[in-house]
Protein 1
Amino acid sequence: MCVYFFWGSTYVAIRFAIETMPPFWMAGIRFLIAGSALYLFRRWRGDRAPAGREWASAALLGAMLLVCGNGAVVWAEQYVPSGITSLLIATTPLWLTIISSLLTRKLPGFGSLAAVLLGFGGILLLINPWQQDGSIHLPGALAINTSAMLWAVAPLIARRLPRSSSPLLETSMEMLAGGAGLTILATLNGDWARVDLAAISLRSLGGMAYLIIFGSLVGFSAYSFLLTAAPPPVVATYAYVNPMVAIAVGALLAGEVITPRVLAAAIVIVSSVVLINLGEHKKTQVVPDPAEIEQAGRAE
């Protein structure tokens, strides 16, 4: 329940946080705080100090997942509703299937290929690029899809990198590296000049606190526990439950409109992800290592 609700509700928390905070500045501070807390906790619990090469790996993954991946999401949510953002991020398994096929130079099976085509049909239905009323911010949608692609590529790269023996310590390192990178990006983007501490609303502060505590710390820790306590097919269900939670929470708390087109696209996209996940479980029965996903990024 923690993974379903907390991760699914982080998208509306991002929307609230960036209402009165510059997006990159907010994300940088968020991951520096969450990463520092988790790092100190894991070191207190006895995890060994990371080697330099492990920090280098964490910096690369933090740059991909958080600076570029989460950075794209927080920027895009200035223009794209949180529920639609969650649906576009849910396409990560589709991109993973495509990228894996390109790397192995092997076409996916018929079922996976049909699921990918179904999923991208859902994206077109959701974005509706032929529509002229500007209902979906196309640059924002493109940024979110780029984020989904990066989250698909990162686990493939992570397998070839030196890793910490503690997944949670590694996650904290990625958050620290990503938070530092986002803070630099905020500086280059001029976010610091736009920070008005007196103008930051309680709703924005609440959104940021929610992201730090429930998105990054509680939600991700619950996910790590599930990996050892629940069957892989059960754990994988978060990938298609989160968008439904995000859409519902966005409608209830942020007044986001659920149109018939958005609902139809949600059904199509989530169905395609379910089909891909089922196919992958039959082939490998393996769930990705939590340090390869960081959803702090999606925890988001």
Protein 2
Amino acid sequence: MSSKANLALLEFDLSHSSRRNRFPNLGSENGQTPIDIPKDTRKFKSTDPEIHYESFSLNDHNIENHEGEYLKIIVSGENYITVKGKRYDLKQFHFHRDSEHAVRGKKSAMETHFVHVAADGKIAVMGVMLTATKRSNEKIAVLFENSPLIPGEHLSIVKNFNAKDLLPKTSAEYYSYSGSLTTPNLDNTPNPDGLTWIVFKSPIHVSEKQVIDYSEIYEELNARILQPLGERTVWERVEKD
């Protein structure tokens, strides 16, 4: 891939939301995300993804109110996953309300997307469902309570954060399929065969109050409507023997 294409990818925002007037439904296109994960999946065994996350500082203006649409955290340091031996670096993670994916027709209160990019521009995204309960999530509170209030604003706090704290404890169980960004990928060059999606089966919890507080800053839902699965296979990772 040319250096120009690499630059275009780096400048392209990988966490666009799905306002219909800006990003129309592409239901007629193949390979789109999000989907309703079906009951019928194909089981497989794997050691992937190998998750290598470490703490990084939030003291670098990396807490972003993205255009008033969602909270985004820009990640620094040695944070990456490997899939089939290939390294994907964690660039950022962001939040959707309500969840973008559904599982057998059921959605969650929110969903977090961890966006990783390989050296050749290939993308792998991990999705975690957030279930609303009565219990507050202290790790998420660090981010939600320090969200900028002004669209486009970036803030810093003197604190380290580890994105692994937002992954489910049972991260060995997940669904995987080939999809897209949740808006049209304006530069399809790095991902002509689709990007890798990993959606964890187990959610993490967030309190109902935290969801409400978040919605007072980010008032619009930013979940793209569900897209047809088509002929794609959804894989379900099972524990190795």
Protein 3
Amino acid sequence: MLFFFYGPDTFRSGEKVVELKRKYLEKNQSQLAGLVLLDFETSENEMQGAASVERALGEQGLFSAKRFVVVQGFSANSSPEEQEKLLEFLMGHPEIIKSAEQFLLFREGEPKAERKSQKGSAKKTAENKLIKYLMAQAKVELFEALSGSKLEKWVMAEAQKFNSAVKFSQSGLTRLLALCGHDLARLRAETEKLVTYRGQGEVTVQDVDMLVQGRVAADIFQTIEALSAGDKKQAIALLHKQLAAGSDPFEILAMYVYQLRTLLKIAELAEQGVQSPMIISQKTGLHSFVVQKGLPQVRRWGFKKLARLFQQLAEIDTQAKMGKIQDLSLALELLIMAQ
């Protein structure tokens, strides 16, 4: 039986491979040796080319034993000559497609970065003869990157797997996705941690803020802290660090806005003379840990300065979305320098 999994979401396609291997072993407990993984993203298999696939299928005599062979990244990381050789082999052995006991699974994600220029355009990829053959003859499944409501549904389904007594509040779910982005492995790990902590009921935004460390959240907090202390040089350095790490400028801006909005909630009560973290936490709905960390900044900034900075961020956000700001990274840097 021939399978072809492809698409950018290698996390879910990898999970599907694991599921199929598990089912294979349940039916063929004595055939552990028949499980073979050929990863062409590693130099060892890449050098052996099509011959390594043929050898994996024919080590015990062609199709004489039950086998499950996974070929990963072959098309993206092999030469046209090697792909032609493998195509000839597959076309010469149609029994691969018909066999109910032999499983050959091709899995393609993204090509190596250094090879994208060599492999050519998306059009050339579509013209790949091996891929065309697999699309026509194999059981095909596309694993697209999840986003929007599909990503939200995936996280909620994962939460139910870990603990059916817990679900996410919409604000908690939105916050988790803002912190973890589209990293499914990270999202699963954080989801398990959150539902285990909550036990029952809803995972709130306060739970997420307390337990989840986002990709840029720590640096954002330190940036605002540096600004409140008058250290523009450190704030600029942290911004550059976030950008160099690949963080999207809009994500950084959103985190700045979120952090300032949180501080403003604390500052509004502090301005009224409320200084108890416990009382502020009760009145704002913020976790006491967040309040305790935010109070020193609020005292250094003051409500008026925080409100002015928040307004400046809101204006940048509006102008960027309207296309009036072409370089958002530069706009954020200028904002920091102006404080």
Protein 4
Amino acid sequence: MKAKFLILLAIFMAGCLTTPYRHGFDENDVVAPTPYHVEWQEKPKDAAIIPPGYSYELNVTIPRNLYPNYWNALEIAIKNNGNTKLFIYNIAIEIDGNTFKQWDGKEGKEIGVGEKKSFIASFKVSSPGEYRYRIGVYFMAASRKWYDYGCKYTQEYEISIDEYSEATNYKFHKNYYVYFDKIKKLVDPCDNIVKQRANIASSGYGYGYNIAKVCAIFDYIKDNMKYVNDSDDKDIWNSPSVALLNGGDCEEFAMTMAAMTMAKGGTARIYMTDNHAFAAIYIGKDLGILDSIDSYYHAKLSYALFEDKLGYWIVADMLSSFYLGCLPVGGYATGESNNERVYEWSIATNNLYAIDVVG
């Protein structure tokens, strides 16, 4: 019996050594999200005669890298510190002599007393270098009736736009068995905690599997899951359900994004570099779906995608930036693209592993 077991083990090990890559997705295995247009609240009527007063605090988050000729995004967080409710109906970025308004000013978000809400604003410049910019907030305030204050600008700030870099000549691996088997064992989209959190994150965005739900899952993980470094230099991977409760590092963030998306009916991959991991979500073969992501964030954005024979996969790395499709950690633009919506990009690594997450 022992000899038979050893023979079987030797055959298995020989198979791993000669074919260290697993079979991944076929055409029939992938599911693309449907488009979904997200609407905000309609702008209230300006009815107050006397200004009711207001007080708010504004904070700007800038991504790791910004590039010319792409739509660069900033996250604008506004906290209502006053005694009146606020309604934000547009954000403007004034830079390099140009003003970029984010939407048409007919809708927006209400911010209650003590609340904080975030907006994504984008702009584009034509060349690398140092720039000065300021943020304009179009808002209304109300104790009973709404009063329109129009646009109030911040002071000027400095921002750097990076130059393009040469693409990295990394080695690409598809479904390497060590990572494939490990991820397959840990990612369970049918786990009760995973399903519950996926439902909470995506509620209010219609029926079926759509791209707004993918964005909402990305935002939920970004805002609610705690980043925790591995202790004692031990690279221990926990399941998404454990990570949702206790936090995790990049592998857990990537697997959790994959698991929650799969719980809603989607298809996911995990990409691994020499020192980082992030998820990518299948979005089909039609880049028109990017318009729906713009509508979710109410901003014009540029996106980091992978493309293969199955279609497009959008990067989902909430440890890099604040929107679905941002460049991942280690990612950088290598030149101007024919399509300003899609980055021409590469990633700093010696090896890049793409792992299909099969459920």
